[in-house]
UniProtKB/TrEMBL annotation:
Keywords: Aminotransferase, Transferase. GO terms for cellular component: cytosol; glycine cleavage complex. The keyword Transferase applies. GO terms for biological process: glycine catabolic process. GO terms for molecular function: aminomethyltransferase activity; transaminase activity. It comes from marine metagenome. This is aminomethyltransferase. Belongs to the GcvT family. Residues 1-235 form the GCVT N-terminal domain.
Length: 337
């Protein structure tokens, strides 16, 4: 995926107000099948896999025994198997982890090389796609999916995304995904723009969606990262459970939303300061195209994580005023429409 096509701000605004088409075929996909597939996935991920119904998707994560995050991922449950979608940079690491914990009656297949993935995101995405797919997209709820046909070829179409807007992610083999891209661009006309990695980052930051390698990694746990809602500590044993129970009882820092008061742009690695003492560090930051101000995600000591808390950020040799705000930064979203 290129950083940009016409420009990050223009592409960002297209997604917020119309539609943007992303090529995210670099992501990794695995098929998990077999009689013990559900038991296996429930053990290696932190969310409740048993609760997923056929044709439903789930956001989850995998943790090491110490609670550190291996990766965050999507799980799609088909009637006879699961499909996992993982971060591109973690494909080999994730596969090694799966194989190390595989049960006898589980089959694992890496389909990354033959699978294409594109995402149409934005308030006009459904009306555009309805012109080219043979199913009623109004019947696909948020985090559900179906199999549809376009020009006689099958594709998985899911009501998922990474932007906060109404949107769909489409999986098909590489040859067909190119044809689907062309069909979407033709059907969308002036209402759709090709969109790149740059605006994908600004869009997800405005929503406080975590990026692996920045906001979450092996040194962070889901509790402090604000992912407690996908961490099902009441389910049967899973990898990292004991450490995460302890993390919840003894939380020392939290991932929060920082908004600049002074003019400035937060960047990864900038320190957060209170009365001369470092109390946190920025993990992601940008100039928000929607809000026209500097925003960032940062881990801060829990005593400074309350909404409204005023702090300072060290930007080069200056201390700039900032404050903790409620997530998400951008609230006029259409994801639930």
């Amino acid at each position: 995926m290129p950083i940009q096509y016409t420009g990050i701000i223009q592409e960002h605004n297209a997604v917020r107000h119309s539609a943007g088409l992303f090529d995210v075929s670099h992501m990794g996909e695995f098929i998990i099948a077999g009689d013990e597939a559900e038991v296996f996935l429930d053990y290696v991920t932190i969310n409740d896999v048993v609760s997923i119904q056929p044709w439903q998707a789930q956001y989850s994560a995998m943790c090491y025994e110490d609670g550190g995050i291996i990766d965050d991922l999507l799980i799609y449950r088909y009637p006879d198997h699961f499909m996992l979608v993982v971060n591109a940079s973690n494909k080999e690491k994730d596969l090694d982890w799966f194989m190390a914990h595989k049960l006898d009656n589980v089959d694992i297949l890496d389909i990354s090389d033959q699978t294409g993935l594109i995402a149409l995101q934005g308030p006009k995405s459904r009306s555009i796609l309805q012109n080219i797919f043979d199913i009623n997209l109004n019947e696909i709820d948020f985090y559900w999916f179906d199999v549809a046909k376009i020009n006689g070829n099958s594709a998985t179409i899911a009501r998922t995304g990474y932007t906060g807007e109404l949107g769909f992610e489409i999986y098909a083999d590489h040859d067909n995904i190119v044809k689907i891209w062309d069909a979407i661009m033709k059907a969308g006309g002036d209402a759709v723009e090709p969109t790149g990695l740059g605006c994908r980052d600004t869009l997800r930051m405005e929503m406080k969606y975590c990026l692996y390698g920045n906001d979450i990694d092996a040194s962070t746990n889901p509790i402090e990262a604000g992912l407690g809602w996908i961490t099902k500590l009441d389910k049967d044993n899973f990898i990292g459970k004991e450490a995460l129970v302890d993390a919840k009882a003894n939380i020392t820092r939290k991932l929060i939303c920082i908004e600049m008061i002074d003019r400035g742009i937060p960047r990864k690695g900038y320190t957060i300061v209170n009365n001369g003492a470092v109390v946190g560090e920025v993990t992601s930051g940008t100039q928000s195209p929607s809000l026209n101000q500097g925003i960032g995600l940062a881990y801060v000591a829990k005593g400074f994580a309350k909404t409204g808390t005023k702090l300072k950020m060290k930007v080069r040799d200056k201390l700039l005023n900032c404050k903790v705000v409620k997530s998400p930064f951008y609230k006029e979203i259409t994801v639930n429409n």
